[in-house]
Amino acid sequence: MQSSSVVLLQSDPAIVQSLCADLRHSFRSVKETRSLNELRTSIAKHHPEVAILDMEMASITEVGLLAHEFPSVSIVCTHRLADEEMWAAALRAGAADICPSQDKRGILTAVMRSASRSQSLAA
User: Fold this and answer.
1) What are phi and psi of 76, to 5 degrees?
2) How far is CA 10 from the centre of its chain?
3) Which CATH superfamily is domain 3-122 in?
4) What is the pLDDT of residues 50-93, one digit of tens each?
5) What is the pTM of this model?
6) Is 29:46 a contact under the CB 8 Å cutoff?
7) DSSP 55-66
8) Residue 5, phi then psi, degrees to nearest 5
9) SS3 assignment, position 80
10) What residues pair up with 77 in beta bridges, in sequence order?
11) How far apart (Å, rounded) are the C-alpha atoms in residues 57 and 53?
């Protein structure tokens, strides 16, 4: 069963390509964005269940603003140097999870867990 959609903002084109290829197996729509403003516009337009956000392109404050503005969207953050302190800060800001940028399996697991949680809440 395919979930609705996911949007992503990532700084590394190789990560974008790899994630999109795998996400397309589980989501009807995968939207790539190139800026925080484009991500925000895409979320408003497409109403995804999950947004994947590179913390090198957005601050913790911006994560909090997105979580407040779009409470029905689970935000999975990534960062090439993600650690426990960053994880705790991202969760306090409203993110569902944070994963190292190179941990594709971890990112996909967090996205699928977040999408399942969104579907359960909607039911």
Assistant:
1) -105, 115
2) 9
3) Response regulator (3.40.50.2300)
4) 999 999 999 999 999 999 999 999 999 999 887 899 999 999 99
5) 0.90
6) yes
7) TTSS-HHHHHHH
8) -150, 165
9) coil
10) 53, 98
11) 8
Give CA torsion, residues 3, 118, 84, 66, to 10 deg. 100
Report yes or no: 76 and 51 within 8 Å, Cβ to Cβ.
yes
Interacting residues of 8 by C-beta distance below 8 A, sequence separation 6+: 16, 19, 20, 23, 30, 31, 32, 33, 39, 51, 52, 53
pLDDT of residue 112: 93
Pairing of strands 50-54, 27-33: unpaired
> Strands 3-9 and 50-54, how do they pair?
parallel
Domain segments of the chain as ranges: 3-122
Other Cβ atoms closer than 10 A to 14: 9
Give the integer Cα–Cα distance in Å for 81 and 46: 30
The secondary element (H helix, E strand) that includes residue 122 is helix 104-122
Distance separating alpha carbons of residues 98 and 119, to the nearest angstrom? 20
Per-residue pLDDT at 115: 86
